[in-house]
Amino acid sequence: MSQANVPSSSSLPPGMQLRLAAVRALCFDLDGTLLDTIPDLAAAANGMLVDLGLAPRPVDEVGTYVGKGADRLILRMLEAAGQPTEEGSDAFAQARKRFHAHYRHCNGKEARLYPGVASGLKRMADIGLPMACVTNKPQEYIQPLLLHFHLRQYFDFFIGGDTLPTKKPDPGPLLEAAHRWYLAPGQVLMVGDSLNDAQAARAARMPVVMLPYGYNEGRPLDSVDADATVEDLDQLATWLELSRGLTPTAPSAKP
């Protein structure tokens, strides 16, 4: 379906009733899906550049480099600053060390919870659906963020970009999540904001729903192959309730 047309929360879009009724668990991306982490990532990436004697980049530009993991962000920042390099080089190792030194200090300081996330996750938990966070963010940063924003209790586990040998858009992390739940991939719904998330879900043969407010490396969602777009997680919770014949619960005050 067109990603530009988000159906109303009071009705299910064509074809979604059966897909959502079959869902037994959900995987969520983190950056751009649950939290807006661009301010912290930009602070760390620009701190890295300054340490290396390079000029910082605009925050909006940094946002277009987010989505494929920290190492890719570092490489793109160095390229934008006029110092391109490759993974494995001494220059990359030094830049990586500086980035993580900054990010460990600022992780969560300026990040914000997207509207509807806390209430939507609670409603999905109340339905009895297990959930996991599957992100390309390095694993050491995931739990501190989830704890800081009081979201950790909703997730059975989390899988980071360095947890497994592969990361999204490879289907490996999503297949690992399904395996941990003893579920078929088609019984797990991926919820994300980028082409990475959609490609990983399609490769894993999972249904996928997109959120329109995330990053997607600065590109529009119109061409992303997804089953539907929801305006926020409260709308997704309503759809899941409707697919189970439940009366939608009123969302609490957002976020």
TrEMBL record:
<dbReference type="InterPro" id="IPR050155">
    <property type="entry name" value="HAD-like_hydrolase_sf"/>
</dbReference>
<comment type="function">
    <text>Specifically catalyzes the dephosphorylation of 2-phosphoglycolate. Is involved in the dissimilation of the intracellular 2-phosphoglycolate formed during the DNA repair of 3'-phosphoglycolate ends, a major class of DNA lesions induced by oxidative stress.</text>
</comment>
<dbReference type="InterPro" id="IPR006439">
    <property type="entry name" value="HAD-SF_hydro_IA"/>
</dbReference>
<dbReference type="InterPro" id="IPR023214">
    <property type="entry name" value="HAD_sf"/>
</dbReference>
<keyword id="KW-0479">Metal-binding</keyword>
<dbReference type="GO" id="GO:0008967">
    <property type="term" value="F:phosphoglycolate phosphatase activity"/>
</dbReference>
<dbReference type="GO" id="GO:0019253">
    <property type="term" value="P:reductive pentose-phosphate cycle"/>
</dbReference>
<keyword id="KW-0378">Hydrolase</keyword>
<comment type="similarity">
    <text>Belongs to the HAD-like hydrolase superfamily. CbbY/CbbZ/Gph/YieH family.</text>
</comment>
<keyword id="KW-0113">Calvin cycle</keyword>
<protein>
    <recommendedName>
        <fullName>Phosphoglycolate phosphatase</fullName>
        <ecNumber>3.1.3.18</ecNumber>
    </recommendedName>
</protein>
<dbReference type="Pfam" id="PF00702">
    <property type="entry name" value="Hydrolase"/>
</dbReference>
<keyword id="KW-0460">Magnesium</keyword>
<dbReference type="InterPro" id="IPR037512">
    <property type="entry name" value="PGPase_prok"/>
</dbReference>
<dbReference type="GO" id="GO:0046872">
    <property type="term" value="F:metal ion binding"/>
</dbReference>
<comment type="subunit">
    <text>Homotrimer.</text>
</comment>
<dbReference type="InterPro" id="IPR036412">
    <property type="entry name" value="HAD-like_sf"/>
</dbReference>
<dbReference type="GO" id="GO:0006281">
    <property type="term" value="P:DNA repair"/>
</dbReference>
<feature type="binding site">
    <location>
        <position position="29"/>
    </location>
    <ligand>
        <name>Mg(2+)</name>
    </ligand>
</feature>
<dbReference type="GO" id="GO:0005829">
    <property type="term" value="C:cytosol"/>
</dbReference>
<feature type="active site" description="Nucleophile">
    <location>
        <position position="29"/>
    </location>
</feature>
<comment type="pathway">
    <text>Organic acid metabolism; glycolate biosynthesis; glycolate from 2-phosphoglycolate: step 1/1.</text>
</comment>
<dbReference type="GO" id="GO:0046295">
    <property type="term" value="P:glycolate biosynthetic process"/>
</dbReference>
<keyword id="KW-0119">Carbohydrate metabolism</keyword>
<dbReference type="InterPro" id="IPR023198">
    <property type="entry name" value="PGP-like_dom2"/>
</dbReference>
<feature type="binding site">
    <location>
        <position position="193"/>
    </location>
    <ligand>
        <name>Mg(2+)</name>
    </ligand>
</feature>
<feature type="binding site">
    <location>
        <position position="31"/>
    </location>
    <ligand>
        <name>Mg(2+)</name>
    </ligand>
</feature>
